[in-house]
Every structure is written in structure tokens, then in C-alpha cells.
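Re: that chain you flagged

S.,

Sorry for the slow reply, it's been a week of failed gels. I finally had a moment to sit down with the sequence you sent. For the record, here it is as I used it:
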Amino acid sequence: MKTEKRQLDLQRYIPALVNFLSNKLSSGASKCYRKNFAIGIIEWRVLAMLKVESDITANRICQVIGLDKAAISRAVKQLVEEDYVTLKQDPEDARSSLLQLTAEGHRLHDQIIPIALERERLLLSGISKKDLDVTIDVLTKLNENVKLVDAFNPFAKDGKE
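Prediction finished late last night. Pasting the C-alpha cells below so you have them in one place:
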């Protein structure tokens, strides 16, 4: 009996392609932001999220961004120490804190946002509006499908937990 040798085609395996792109973008952004603003990519993501949605918990940031709580907690701690973010007790849940940008946090965000948007513009150079719209639609659907992937159990009879 001949055993079939299988391996990933890294040029066509979507999880790898998305991950490689994400890693490269995150690394480059982190270097840029650390050099110019003394914060990394995770701190930037927290700032950007709080600009969009204020008075939220770290858990909410984790849900939206998809990072683990420890990474977000470290970023929040740094941002609080540097007076970019404040914490206040959640009136509905005394165990939780709500996060919001300080005036300094808003200023830092407003300094970085044009750089982030220029990095995006450069990334998208040569891509038509039509292709961009399709890409956004596909990425949105992939994000929605993550819950299906996470629920997959290869050892369950029906493939679900």
C-alpha cells in the first residue's frame, strides 16, 4: 500500500497567505510606530479601536481585533502608564474597567492615522476598485467563517464539538 505524501501549497493555502501578509504588515507597522511614536502595533490597534468605540472593556477589544487578552492587557497597561488611555470602573460590572482615550491618546492617534492610511494606500497600489471591493467582501466572509473553523473537531463524528 502506497502512502500518499501530502503537503501544503503555501502559494495557494489561504490561512498561510493571510497569516504571512498579516505578519509582514504587523512587523513593518510595529517598527514604524516604535521608531516614530514609541508604541507598537498592538498599542496602535488599541488606540484605533478606542477612537472608533470608547468606554469599552479590554474583552471587547479582544473580540473585535482577535488578539488574546494577555497581549491586550500589556498594551493597555503601557498606554495607561503613558497617559494615552484611562480606566474607569464599569457601572454595570464592578469587576470590569472601561477604557477611553485621554487627550494625549487622541493626539497620538491623530498623529499616527495619516501614516497608517498612507501605508494602506501603498499596500493597495495597483489594485482596482473592483478588485478591492471583491477582496473586502471575501475577507469579510472569511472573518465570518472563522467561527465555523474554530468549532471544527476532527475527532467528532459530525466534525463539531
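What I noticed first: The CA atoms of residues 42 and 75 lie 6 Å apart.

Talk soon,
D.
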